[in-house]
Amino acid sequence: MRWVIIGSSGYIGSALSRYLLATGDPVVSVSRRPSGPQGAFHHQVETLSAKDCAGLFVAGDRVIYAAGMASVRECRQQPGAAELVNCRFPGELLGAAAAAQADSFLYLSSVKAVTPPSGQLAREYEGQPASDVYGGSKWRAEQQLLASPAEIRVNVLRPAAVYGECENGSGAGQADVHPVAAKRVMAWRQKFRVWGRFIPRVPTTGFRSFVALGDLLDAIRLIVESRCDREVFIAAEPQYCDLSVIGSAASGRTMKNSDFLTAIVGLVARSLSVMGVKSGLLEVGRSELYSSARLRTTLNWRPVRRYRQFLQAVNEGS
Q: N or C: which end of the chain has fewer CB within 10 A?
């Protein structure tokens, strides 16, 4: 069976393509770029519409929709484009894949599709549908795909914040880091080093869930190779991080939480809000915790990497 990776030039899509190719699986990469990963059959498209992807699918294909607008800011600035790429195109391609008698269709969503109860460990069916452009487009896509009468297995995977390296061939071979991910990590490291030099304290923040890229790729394979249908899974590590944990790991300096700084940040955020300026600072103390218990118990998924260890390794190796 072929794996068809929609959005093969992105962070997750490109890593998934190389991961599968390293294990000898046939891969069809689909993106707007003129070429794909070495060893894959590449299909260049102008858009991800069913029209541009006509004739792409064949019987037995395992289709992964890894494309989408992932930047919350870009989605807010271009709501129409976000709805098109995150929601409408997946529905179109599901229909085309089903018509070609593909085996399965996996939609890579986001934990941001649902707003979890603050401070509580959220599972797949807990919380409220997201109201922002990014999360809302993901939620609507999920509902549309899961409700489809198409005769094809359909599943949804919601990753927590994804980080790190793709180890080719399930851990064998040289680690491959997407340049955007590497740039993000180094930026965090530099910011915390400068901050920690003058103020070894950070605002008290809620905890956040993460998942390593390599563990996420393992989850994708497990779901696709199972016989699951119309299921929703969360992929997240069993440990959580707040700003002090991230800052200490990234900078190599001990950083502690400060309620005073939290109060200052909150005052600034509320002032900006009164003036009509939207700011994520108001969410600084909110915890977003997600449970992957369903994925672990149903498919025996075992995440082995941890975000703080990854940041420490990057800090020590640079």
A: C
